[in-house]
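re the bet — no i am not wrong, look at it urself. input seq straight from the record:
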Amino acid sequence: MSFEVKHNGRTYEWEDGVWFDTTKNMVAPESIRSELNAGLISQLVQPSFISHYEEQGKRHVLFNFLSDRMGVSLAKLSTIGFFDEVMATSPEVALENLFSSDSTPSGLSFVNCKRLRDRFFSGKPTASFQMPVKLLGSGPFEQEDMKGFLKKCKVPMWKRNTPVNALILGRTGWDRDKVAELIEEAEGSVLQIYSQEMLVSILAGQPDPFQTWPLKERLWDLYPFRSGHPGLEYVSNGWAGWIKGAGYSSAVSWGNSTADFSQVEQSPLSVMGYRAGVSGLEEGSRRQILRSAFEQPLPFVESPAYMEGWGKPSSADRLKRIAQHLANVIESHSNLTNHHVAVSDWRNDLEWLKNTFYRGIYTFYWPQV
């Protein structure tokens, strides 16, 4: 592909990843290449240009070119005409822009209004819900009112000293520490977190989002309930297991863009000098690198899209990615007899990360190995 972009009165031509002047005798200076790239991207995302590729049946060619060669982020692509392509590779990114976090119900319905709810269910049989439920917080219905309504619907209630498998989270009156504690206790077992609205809709005969398959389709059911709900937004932003509705440790992923660590020759941690095992670094040196990797900017590796997955310094995304990276290398080397020292180092470093940065602060599900 070749394209032309004007800059400061001169015309430059892009061909096979290189910018030339129009005579093709001189490569464009490094100092202006980012501006030329920006000019090219602005051309390619025009509706008329995208339509041309669509007519030729080559939308995927343009999408791959923008993401792989030009480094345009998936979040940006989802907003400039490539929502379907981003949805196919990374539903989390596409839906993050689709459903605004500050949206509110457009009106009252039986899932958020006591009067309409009671009228809707008056004399009607309700769909069954078999798991005992634990209520935490209020909104849109008061907790005691919701408890009474569920008893009328013959929904079993959670009993003390038994596992919590179905948590009903209100909009207000819930405690972050309590939610984090319940997630921690659910390790290795099922924990499905609903809003009051979700449960009422299920009792009215609508599908349970946690029973929707495949996971891509489940997102379409879960995210409208999440949007504008403080409790579900808090849980889903930190805990990948919310989407799965179970105590799984691995991150949710439907493509190669979010969690495949095998596609790069060196991770940012490797570039920073992190090494474990007999020929690796001492414990203090390894952990200083891990601390820097969490708190400081990372060295650039592979592509902007790959680096985007590592999150910002001192963020939940950054800590989650580092932890998952260590969990991955532990699992991939655990059966190799000549790596037992490295595996032990990685396990100890993973536990150190958890104790130092995770406990009492974040709620995403910590990887188990």
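see?? The two ends are 46 Å apart (CA to CA). told u. also Residues 2-98 form one domain. so pay up
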